[in-house]
Amino acid sequence: MCGRFACAVDPEVVCRACRYRGHDGAVQQPKWRDNPRVPHYNPSANVAPTNYSPVLVSRKNLKLAADDEGEPETSGNERVVIPMRFGLIPSWHRGEESGMHLSTTNCRWEGILEKKTFAKPLKKGRRCVVLCEGYYDWKKLEKSKTKQPYIIYTAEEKPFLQSENKDELLTKSAGKVPLLKLAAIFDVWRPSEGEPDVYGFSIITVAAAKSLIWIHDRMPAILLSEEEVSQWLDFEKVPAEDALNVIHPVEDLKWHPVTRAMGNAGYKNPDASKPIPLEEAEDKVKPLPKGQMTMASFLRAPGTKRSSTGADGQSSPLKLAKRE
């Protein structure tokens, strides 16, 4: 599953890291668009459900007003980066945002076309790419109830996640920075009259690669190449069924243990993604800092309901061609 991830990256850096070649062959850089619901976007090393974080999306999927320079939409750019809510709210939801108790942070690849919550936006072409430095998962320590969090990220020689000067790294690499790009779907929920629409996303998960089975049997769907990103975003030319066939488990990743304090969804310190000594990670009795809540405790908290979608909050596997 993918219930937390890190994206402690400024908007300008995110956009520069998403440069690509458009259909005309020219290099383009997506424009950042503010979300009316989050006028002051805050990068975070610990993005949790209901937080807002940057996603890459086709501009044709958004109804955008003129930009700061007065140019219509994105001045011909094919893609936009905009913060969206982690956990989509279905367009058919009635009531307040706080009354939406379905678990929609993740959706399983195997049954995505069979579940209304995810099938409807997918069939409307609402596909997007979540941008992050890495995602978190928890390993249960042997003969213990303690769970140790790890962050999993790209296996580049000099990972972006661990770079002290991301802007300098961007400059040296001509913008080709290895942010993880996660396949996701989004939906648009219209709340009370006069309030901005809520754009929320769900990250697609697949069976874990062999190298990651030790931590969890699921992993987010990672798009490795520009071709995969392009096919996923181009909903006009690539039907949903074909786009889903782009998705597969990915082996070539790295990881390291991180502080257990980040198990608290409110822990936003920059050190949330920093490596800790292995001996500290394997310490079964090391307590959390006072007042910290673990991921399991957060999920058991009053008011946090699960849908009938399975133990990891995802839809049950139904139909789709079996992947090798």
TrEMBL record:
Residues 266-324 are annotated as: Disordered. Signal peptide: none annotated. Residues 305-317 have a biased composition (Polar residues). GO terms for biological process: protein-DNA covalent cross-linking repair; proteolysis. GO terms for molecular function: lyase activity; peptidase activity; single-stranded DNA binding. Keywords: Covalent protein-DNA linkage, DNA damage, DNA-binding, Hydrolase, Lyase, Protease. SUPFAM superfamilies: BB1717-like (SSF143081). It comes from the Eukaryota. Belongs to the SOS response-associated peptidase family. PANTHER family: ABASIC SITE PROCESSING PROTEIN HMCES, DC12-RELATED. This is Abasic site processing protein HMCES.
